[in-house]
Design brief:
Layout (H helix, E strand, L loop, with lengths): L4 E5 L5 E3 L2 H4 L6 E5 L5 E4 L1 H15 L3 H12 L2 E3 L6 E3 L2 H7 L4 E7 L2 E6 H18 L1
Antiparallel strand pairs: 1-7, 2-6, 3-4, 3-5, 4-8, 7-8
């Protein structure tokens, strides 16, 4: 399980360091995918396969899921990590999620999310209000 939030900086080559706490889960690499909320998700290979099966099952009976699954898989990218936990975020994915400079790395239970710092702050403020209402 992934939890917590960390702030790291993209280097000039578009590489990001994964927090030490998350690295063991990504020894076999990972998969970056777009998210409808404007961030990128980083999945372990088993979690990516589970999510792909989830989409596939729903796409058999629902055209909207077929469209969503096609978008999700076509806009995914495999990533590898070096010994220091660094990985390259493809340029087109950085553009998609507006990642530059400071990036928030968020543990979201079964995956990790990469957020533009300003987008995360706005999202988190709105989420805090919803969280308070539910509590």
């Amino acid at each position: 399980m992934f939890s917590g939030r960390y702030q790291h900086t993209l280097d000039p080559k578009g590489r990001l360091v994964l927090p030490v706490r998350f690295r063991e889960a990504f020894l076999l690499g990972g998969h970056l995918t777009p998210e409808y909320v404007g961030c990128l998700s980083l999945w372990t290979p088993p979690s990516f396969e589970e999510k792909a099966r989830w989409y596939t099952q729903r796409a058999q009976d629902d055209k909207a899921y077929a469209v969503a699954s096609r978008h999700w898989s076509a806009n995914s990218a495999m990533v590898e990590f070096d010994k220091t936990g660094r990985f390259a975020v493809p340029a087109w994915m950085r553009d998609l999620a507006r990642l530059d400079g400071e990036v928030f790395i968020i543990g979201h239970i079964d995956h990790v999310e990469l957020w533009n710092a300003e987008s995360w702050e706005a999202y988190d403020q709105a989420a805090a209000a919803s969280f308070k209402d539910l509590a």
